[in-house]
């Protein structure tokens, strides 16, 4: 069985479509959250994810669409959430609000979360250097899939897998190409993938709808 892993789409429809077109045949697609925020296609990305993903967990942007002022210290994030709130209808906002904060995939063998497997630490960033700290959460699972950092990385810890498929719509690892991964849960292996897309079209759309210029410009260098 092959599972497609996507995360941190952040309302970037051209990147999402490029990933779905590039992805090899998989049995299911799962999403580690943050469908909306930052970029200018929140409703379109939400509906696309709903149509292709068998499981989606809630990201921090997904759960703050109704309260964008919580990101007042980050004008780009707040602007993206305000735009998402204006573009999503009531049913779409309700769907985001009812996504689980964590779940399991592959018959319970793998934990799927957005930021951290401990619900008391949902705001924590599990960066690549912190992957070994996930070992206590692996006692009951063969692996953990998470997102949030926008940094694509995988590690094997005591024969257990921890993987971040990277960000579809706003990579922050110095590579502007959209990121995703394909997991073989039985073998405990993962293939990390990148695919280019039309970033200029995103920049143009960002400016057309009045989002901060930096939201689009940062995509050029994967920052």
Describe the structure.
- This protein is an alpha/beta fold.
- It has a domain at 3-103 and 167-220: Purple Acid Phosphatase, chain A, domain 2.
- The chain has helices spanning 13-22, 42-52, 75-87, 90-97, 199-209, 213-217; strands at 3-6, 28-31, 53-56, 102-105, 110-113, 143-145, 153-157, 160-164, 178-184, 189-195.
- The strands form two sheets. Strands 3-2-1-9-10 form a five-stranded mixed sheet. Strands 4-5-6-8-7 form a five-stranded mixed sheet, with no helix packed on it.
- It is globular.
Q: Helical region count?
A: 6
**Order of strands across the biggest sheet?**
3-2-1-9-10
Question: CATH architecture of the domain at 3-103 and 167-220, please?
Answer: 4-Layer Sandwich
The share of residues in extended strands comes to 15-25%
- Tell me the radius of gyration: 16 Å
| Secondary-structure element pattern, one letter each | EHEHEHHEEEEEEEHH
Shape: globular
Which CATH C-level class of the domain at 3-103 and 167-220 is it? Alpha Beta
Average pLDDT reading: 96
As residue ranges, the low-confidence spans are none
Ends apart, CA distance between termini:
33 Å
CATH level 3 topology of the domain at 3-103 and 167-220 = Purple Acid Phosphatase, chain A, domain 2
| Count of distinct strands | 10
Category from helices, strands and their pairing? alpha/beta
Helix content: 25-40%
Quaternary state of this entry equals single chain
Query: Major sheet, described briefly?
Result: 5 strands, mixed
Query: What's the name of the CATH homologous superfamily of the domain at 3-103 and 167-220?
Result: Metallo-dependent phosphatases
């Amino acid at each position: 069985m092959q599972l497609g892993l996507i995360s941190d789409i952040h309302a970037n429809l051209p990147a999402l479509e490029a990933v779905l077109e590039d992805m090899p045949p998989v049995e299911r697609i799962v999403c580690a959250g943050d469908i909306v925020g930052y970029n200018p296609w929140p409703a379109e990305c939400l509906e696309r994810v709903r149509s292709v993903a068998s499981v989606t967990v809630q990201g921090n942007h997904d759960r703050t669409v109704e309260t964008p002022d919580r990101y007042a210290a980050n004008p780009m994030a707040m602007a993206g959430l305000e735009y998402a709130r204006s573009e999503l209808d009531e049913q779409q906002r309700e769907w985001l609000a009812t996504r689980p904060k964590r779940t399991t995939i592959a018959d319970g063998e793998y934990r799927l979360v957005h930021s951290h497997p401990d619900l008391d630490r949902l705001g924590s960033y599990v960066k690549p250097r912190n992957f070994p700290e996930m070992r206590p959460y692996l006692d009951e699972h063969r692996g953990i899939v998470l997102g949030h950092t926008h940094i694509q990385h995988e590690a094997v810890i005591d024969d257990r897998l921890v993987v971040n498929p990277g960000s579809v719509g706003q990579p922050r690892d110095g590579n502007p190409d959209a990121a995703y991964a394909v997991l073989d849960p039985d073998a405990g292996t993962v293939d990390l993938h990148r695919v280019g897309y039309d970033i200029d079209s995103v920049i143009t759309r960002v400016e057309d709808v009045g989002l901060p210029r930096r939201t689009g410009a940062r995509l050029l260098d994967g920052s």
